[in-house]
Amino acid sequence: MKLYTRSGDKGQTSIIGGKRDKDDIRIEAYGTCDELNAFVGRAAALLNEEMFSDIKSELITIQHELFDCGSDLSTVKKDATFKVDESMITFLEERMDDYTEEAPPLQRFILPGGTSAASELHVCRTVARRAERLTAKLMKEEAIHEEVFKYLNRLSDYFFAAARVVNYRLEIADVEYERSAIVFHTSKKQ
C-alpha cells in the first residue's frame, strides 16, 4: 500500500459524504484535533508509568476519542452515525472533579509550566481551545454533531486539571501570574 494517493494535489480532500478545499473550516477543525492528538501522545510519553498510570491511561483514551472527534467533524453525510457521546464528556468532568480535589486550591491565574509533562499538558490545553474555536466557527456555518463541541470544551479544562496534578504529585508548585487578582473562589480547606 502506498501512503500517497495524489488525490489532494489540486487542493481538495475527501471527507465522509463529499469533498472540501483543504483550507475549509471543517478541515481546519478536524485537522486541529489531529494536531492535538499528536501533542497528547507526546504528553503521555513524558509521564512516568508508576506515578501517573491513571493520567497516562486517560490520555490514550483521549487519543482514541480525538480520532472520534475528527471522524464526526469530517462527516457531512445526512444519515451519519456519530461516535462522540455524552458518556465521554461525563468521564472528563468526573476526572476533572477528582483532580481538582487532589491539587491544592487555586485562587489566581497560573503560568503554564512546571515539569515537562505538565508543560506539555498546557500545550494540549491551548491546542484544544483552538480546536474548540474552529469548531465554534464551523457551527455558525454548518450543522455538526454538537457533542464534539461539548467534548472539546471539557477537554481543555481536563488538560488544565491534569497539568496541575502532575506538578502537585512531583511537588512542583504552580507559579501564579503575579498581576492576577483573586479570580477563583474556593471553599476547599487548605
Task: Please explain how this structure is put together.
The protein has 190 residues and is mainly alpha-helical. It has a single domain (19-76, 84-169), classed as Up-down Bundle (Hypothetical Protein Ta1238, Chain: A), CATH 1.20.1200.10. Helices cover 58% and strands 4% of the residues. The protein contains five helices and two strands, in the order E-E-H-H-H-H-H. The protein has helices at residues 25-46, 53-73, 86-102, 116-141, 146-169, and strands at 12-15, 18-21. The chain has a two-stranded antiparallel ribbon with strand order 1-2. A hairpin with a 2-residue loop joins strand 1 and strand 2 (18-21). It is elongated and about 50 Å long.
Keywords:
Hypothetical Protein Ta1238, Chain: A, CblAdoTrfase-like, mainly alpha, CblAdoTrfase-like_sf, 190 residues, 5 helices, transferase, two-stranded antiparallel ribbon, nucleotide-binding
Strand order of the largest sheet: 1-2
Q: What name does CATH use for the topology?
A: Hypothetical Protein Ta1238, Chain: A
Task: State the CATH architecture.
Answer: Up-down Bundle
Run of helices and strands: EEHHHHH
In percent, how much strand structure appears in the residues? under 5%
Mean pLDDT: 90
| Count, helices | 5
Helix content: 55-70%
Count of structural domains: 1
From the helix content, strand content and strand pairing, which structural class follows?
A: mainly alpha
Strand elements, count: 2
Shape verdict: elongated
Largest sheet: 2 strands, antiparallel
State the end-to-end CA separation: 58 Å
C-alpha Rg, in Å? Answer: 18 Å
CATH superfamily: Cobalamin adenosyltransferase-like
Name of the level-1 CATH class? Mainly Alpha
Show unreliable segments: none
